[in-house]
Structure formats: structure tokens, C-alpha cells
Amino acid sequence: MSWLRDRILPVLTVVLAIIALWYAGAIALNAPWAYDKATRTGEQLTVTTLIADTWTQDKPRLPTPDQVVREIWKTTGAMVLKGRGWSKRSLIYHAWVTLSATVVGFGLGGVLGILLAVGIVHNRAMDMSVMPWVIASQTIPILAIAPMVIVVLNAIGVTGLLPKAIISMYLSFFPVVVGMVKGLRSPDRMQIDQMRTWFASRWQTFWKLRLPASMPYLFTSLKVAMAASLVGTIVGELPTGAVAGLGARLLAGSYYGQTIQIWSALIMAALLAAVLVGLIGLLQRITLRRMGMLR
Amino acid sequence: MQDMNQSDAVIRAENLSLTFQTNDGPVHALQDISLTIGKGEFVSFIGPSGCGKTTFLRVMADLEKPTDGTICVNGVTPEQARKSRAYGYVFQAAGLYPWRTIDGNVRLPLEIMGYDKADQAARVKRVLELVDLAGFERKYPWQLSGGMQQRASIARALAFDADILLMDEPFGALDEIVRDHLNEQLLKLWAKTNKTICFVTHSIPEAVYLSTRIVVMSPRPGRITDVIDSPLPAERPLDIRDSKEFLDVAHRVREGLRAGHAYDD
Q: Which CATH superfamily does the domain covering A91-291 fall into?
């Protein structure tokens, strides 16, 4: 019972508050269009008809949660039931396109980030020379270079998933580098001295001390990197005339003023991010428990 | 004790000096230290902070390089001694790895030094019994008290074949009751293993209780002001600390500390 009171109730309260605000926002934002229509048809709007109208418009400025949920169901579950789950009109298909590029980009970014961090920690020249570039790379707006990456790779015949994965990697390697450098340097002076007294090689110090010590840092940065990966992929789908993926879905929706479609793609992206970050969290718990670092 | 021959000397320092260059000018951490420590001795280094006692221990361990003078450990340079794993070093903090069990922590230096698996297991079992931690092999460090963690770290320093044990205020962070207990155990352990122990402390009773010889040091510059041979017998129950001999030695240590310590700053 206390579990219900301490954990479920607060979450539920916040969710309900957000939904209430959302419906109220829909009334405020969609009311001008409702008045517009009413003026043209000469209708007189009562409070009830006004609210009913703002919550059921075809192209509302702010669609209501139930409109978005219905749209998501229409493009996912309902299509699966009809056996058309992989149709180009299905959100599952678009989510899968984005997911696959995100996972590949995240994998590449993670590996690149870890390798750079190992180099930075072990090599003074790399420490001095690479880190400024790593930081500079993140000051460039991703929107500015995403089209260039796509165009350049296209010119050499690389199309499809990989260009998007590379943009996603560009965003996701950064938190991993920063977190991993901190993690690999987390052993204190005493622990390093101790390794010296045993005449341990650098390799042994790395495997037996630095790497295990960095694990909590690694997982924290991987969570950030996963979210960044997803953003990178969606950005990679936006400016390139891509026809598939959540980014393409967002763009198509905004071309045709299909706000409900935009919001359903957004919610889908958010769900995807939540699941992916949750998976990393699970992996973190399992790993740290097996290492005995979770009490 | 003082006129031992060359082969008996485990540590021999002659006119050893170490100066750190800092932004505020040079700091003379050690100046003109000459000391010979024989096999099987238990030598304590005592003095106020900044007297160089820890620095001297770190020089023996090749964690610092002297700027002048010579020092031999087991007849060779500290670097060679370190590379031949001639000593075990116990730091002030236990420094156990949280991701390793007690067994895994004690095993760590053995893995690094390439002992085979069966030998590792036998040694871990032996040293854990030696420090009274048998049965705690599968526990993680956080499941143990501070005193037990420090015992595990001593076991780790004993696990490989080093006949020198360098201890840098190993019980400094523990409360007095635990400290008394561990002091008693350390003496038994020293008697059983016949190691040469260099022990840094800032507790007068601890130094007098444990040592066969007490080296009193003072700061600015770090130097030796007195070396006291303990008249206490090898067998030392805790209540020996109320005996006249004990109090006499403690008094002399205190005098040495007072003489060396400049209170003018």
C-alpha cells in the first residue's frame, strides 16, 4: 500500500496535471479557429460547443491527447490488426527506420567515444590535441552539417541508414568521451601508487583498475548518448528529403499542417527514447549488480 | 643493533635528501637522513605532519625519487626492489576495490604478479586466516567494518613473497578501541611472519607499543632527531603500556618531538 502511495500516486498526479493543462491549452490555442468558423457560418458558440469544437478539429494548432492517442493507434495497432504493420503509412515502420539508424549510430558513437577516451587518458599528446577538437565539434549546430554529411556521403554512393547513423554518432560520441575520460581517471593517486608498488603494467592497471572503476560513469554517459543518438537520427531525416523515419514523418506533417501526425510522431520518438534509455538503465543495474557495486 | 654488517641491512639510507620544488620555493621534505634498518626489525617513524616520515617511506617504495644521497633496499636501488616486488605497502586508506570481493581484492596483486590459480587460492586462504578474516572471502568491502577492511588490505600486502612491509599510518583513520586490537594483532603477525616492518604513525603509544626501534623526526627541514631502541620485551600484552619502561620510552619520544618542533611559527 505504501508503495502505491509513495511511488504511483505522485507520478499519477503529475501525469493528470499535465493532461489537464494540455486540454486547457488546446481550448486556448484552437479557440480562434473555432470562432473564425462560427463567424463564417453565422453560428453562436456556447461554452460547450466551443470546447467541443476545439477538441475535435482536423488540423488543430494543439491536438488533444485523445486525438494523438487515436492517431497513434490508427497507425500502429490498428494497422497490425489489418496485417499491414509494415506498410509505409504505419508508424511502426517509421519508428523502426529511425530506431535502426539510432542503434547503429549509438553503437558507433559509443565505440568511438570509448576509444578516444582510452587514448586521451593514456597519451599526453592525445590529451592535449584531441580534447579541444572533441569540444569544438559539439559547438557546431548539427542542423548545419547534417545536410553536408548526407550530400557528401551520397556523392560517394553511401545512402540509406549509414549517413543518418553517422550524424547520430556525431552527437552521441561526445558524452561518452567526456564521461569515460572522467571515469578512467576516477581512481585516486593512492590506487595508482598501489598499482606501482605491485609493479603492474599499464595494461594491467587499465584492465584491473581504470576500466572497472569507470563503469558507473560509462553507463551514465551512455544514457545521455542514447537520447542524443535519437535526436541525431531524427535531425538526419529532416533536411534530406528522406521518405521514411520519424523525422520524415515530422517534416511531412508540417508540410501539410497535419499537427496530429506531428504530435503522434513526437510522442512515438519520446516513447522510443524512454524505452532505449530504460534498456541502458537495466543493463547498468545488471552489470553493476554482477560487479557487486550495487548494494 | 647499530653495528650490523652489510648483509643484514634491509634498508640503508645515507645522507638522503629530497627537495620538492613548489611555487612557494623549495620544500626540504627530507634532509640528510642516514638510517640502517636490519632484517626482522619493527621500526616506527613518528613526528608531526610535514616531518617527512611518509615521504621517507615513499622513497623506500620508489614512489618518490631522492634528490641527493643514496638508499638501498635489500641491497639494491628502490626501483629494482619495487620491480622485484620486494615489499608490500599498506596505505592509510584500505583502498579495496568495491567491485571485488575480499577474496578478489587479496588475489589482485597475485594476479598481477602472475601466480598460478591454485597458488593464488592457497595464499589467499593463508593470509586471510593470518588476519582473522577467514569466512569473509565472498563479502564485498562495503559489507565489512573499517577495521576489517584495513585487515584485508594488510592481508593483501602479505599475500605475495615480500619480506618488507611498509605501512603508512594504516590505523590512522580508525577509532582507538579498534586500533588497540589491530596493534595487538599486528605484533602477533610480525612474530609469525618475521617480516621487516617500517611503520609510520603520529601516535606515541602506538609507536612505543609496536616497535623495536623508534625514529623521531621533525619538520622544516624533515630530519631525524632521535633514534630510540626499545627496551620492551618481545612479548607485549596490551597492559605493558602501564609499565615504567613503556612510560619512559614514551617520555623520551615526547621529549624528542618537543625538541625538534619549532613552535615559533
A: MetI-like (1.10.3720.10)
| Domain spans, chain A | 2-62, 91-291
Complex prediction ipTM: 0.88
DSSP per-residue string spanning B149-171: HHHHHHHHHHSSS-SEEEEESTT
| Whether the model pTM is above 0.90 | no
Measured between CA atoms, how close is A55 to chain B, in angstroms?
55
Query: What angle is formed at CA A268 by the lines to CA A266 and CA A273, rounded to 5 degrees?
Result: 95
Q: Which residue of A has its CA nearest to B96?
A: A191
Question: Hey, where are the domains in chain B?
Answer: 6-86+163-260, 96-161
Give the tens place of pLDDT for each residue, A162-208.
888 999 999 999 999 999 999 999 999 999 999 999 999 999 999 99
A204 touches B at CB < 8 Å: yes
Asked if A197 lies within 8 A of B101 by C-beta distance, the reply is no
A265 phi and psi, to 5 degrees? -65, -40
Q: Residue holding cell 493528470? A: A16
- CB-CB neighbors (< 8 A) of A295 in chain B: 142
Judge whether residue B261 has pLDDT over 80.
no
State the count of interchain CB pairs (< 8 A) between A and B: 51
Class of domain B6-86+163-260: alpha beta
